[in-house]
Amino acid sequence: MIHVENLTVAGPGFYLDDISFKVNKAEYLIILGPSGAGKTVLLDTLAGLKKPQKGRILFAGRDVTRALPEERKIGYIQQNLALFPHLSVMENITFGARPNRIPPARASERARELAALLGIEHLLSRANPLTLSGGEKQRVALARTLLVEPDIILMDEPFSALDSFTRRQLIFLLPEIFAQFQVTVIHVTHDLQEAFLLGDKIAVLIDGRLHQIGSRDEIYRRPATLAVARLLLNRNTLSGRVIDFSTGEIVARIEEGLDFKLPATPHIQPGDKIHFGINPREIVIIRPDRPLTPRVRSNIFPATVRRIFDQYGSYLLFLDLAGTGIEIELELPGYIYHDMAISIGNNVTVSLKKDSFWVLPADKEG
User: Fold this and answer.
1) pLDDT at 88
2) CA-to-CA distance for 223 and 203, rounded, in angstroms?
3) How far apart are the C-alpha atoms of 172 and 307, rounded to whole Å?
4) Number of domains in the chain
5) 209 and 307 part of one domain
6) 240 and 210 housed in the same domain
7) In this predicted structure, what is the pLDDT of residue 81?
8) Long-range contacts of range 42-45, CB-CB < 8 Å, 24 or more positions apart?
9) pTM over 0.85
10) In this structure, are 237 and 317 located in the same domain?
11) Are residues 168 and 293 located together in one domain of the fold?
């Protein structure tokens, strides 16, 4: 459906470098990246608002690289939503009907159908859309976009101005709406939770370069560069050298003298310097009264609890690993934390599960 080939876009203060990716019909692609990564520049280029210096953009096989925005049959929900204060809610929703040759009666009928679907039918007569709440404005903008039946919807940080409750409502509503209309979506965000809840695929954009694109599980478990791992809050990142290699695993030693068993990784050999890490959710505190399952029988170390933070439903524990001064981060569900009665200063035993580690050659820093 969408095929971007070797796209390069440059201008004052921004640069996209050789971007390539594909999005299938009715697929939901998240472009994830920090502020300043070039996410909005990429959307503007797909929408036709910026022109690339190099590369091609194809929609359903049609080259639209130089096409005008109105020739692309897309909807673009920008961060500021761009609602018109001098038009009523109904008039905002039907604004695109005339240029898209939708008869007034059909536009009005469709606006009411969409308003009912989005739960805003009671707002259609509201004279000034700026009096609406953030979530209501977002739904009006979405209805306006869907009215013209676009093949593709682009969304730029659509939830950034919403409170957490409204944001959660819309996150769970959007996939249902888009699946019903079989629309292809590209949605940019810097929010990890948003990305993993919504994306069929996630593309990670950092400093104008596309570092990785893949499924949620691929991005989470196998970051392609150290920059991706750090963006995903993989703060448990270590560096070492491979000292042994056997079928199914490698052994790496860090400067502090600890050895870690890690999953075998292509193109890594004994003597190679590597980066490796593990998500805080994948570290387990060993309970002496319970048998060890096979998954937690490697990388078992003593640790001391140094800091604890309540995350509303889960707890972050910062541990000194094996008295080395290396601080690792562990996340526990609230019910386990309270059951174990852990407090600062406690000595515990932890397992850093071998198969949960990601491993990268030292030159894959990004």
Assistant:
1) 94
2) 11
3) 34
4) 2
5) no
6) no
7) 83
8) 42/7, 42/9, 42/16, 42/188, 42/205, 43/76, 43/154, 43/156, 43/186, 43/188, 45/7, 45/9, 45/16
9) yes
10) yes
11) no
Intervals of the chain under pLDDT 50: none
Q: Do residues 321 and 331 share a domain?
A: yes
Q: Are residues 214 and 314 in the same domain?
A: no
Do 334 and 315 touch, CB atoms closer than 8 A?
Answer: yes
For residue 288, CA distances in Å to 87, 171, 253, 275 come to: 67, 41, 27, 31
Domain of residue 247 covers 231-361
CA atoms within 13 A on the CB side of 41: 25
- How confident is the model at residue 161, as a pLDDT? 79
CA-wise closest residue to 23 among 175, 181, 144, 187: 187
DSSP assignment of 122-181, as one string?
A: GGTT-S-GGGS-HHHHHHHHHHHHHHT--SEEEEESTTTTS-HHHHHHHHHHHHHHHHHH
How buried is 275 (Cβ within 10 angstroms: 0-12 exposed, 13-18 middle, 19+ buried)?
buried
**What's the CATH code of the domain at 265?**
2.40.50.100
* C-beta of residue 140 within 8 angstroms of C-beta of residue 93: yes
Q: Which amino acid would we find at residue 75? A: G
Amino acid at 274: I
Examine residue 366 and state whether it is found in any structural domain, yes or no. no
Nearest in space to 229 (alpha carbons), one of 243, 240, 215, 218: 218
d(CA 9, CA 353) in angstroms, rounded, equals: 42
Structural contact between residues 66 and 86, judged by C-beta atoms closer than 8 angstroms: no
| 309 within some domain | yes
Q: Kindly list the distances between the CA atom of residue 80 and the CA atoms of 153, 162, 337, in Å, as whole numbers in the listed order.
A: 16, 12, 41
Nearest Cα residue to 82 out of 31, 122, 137: 137
Q: Which residues of 309-323 are buried (b: 16+ CB within 10 A; e: fewer)?
A: eeeeebbebbbbbbe
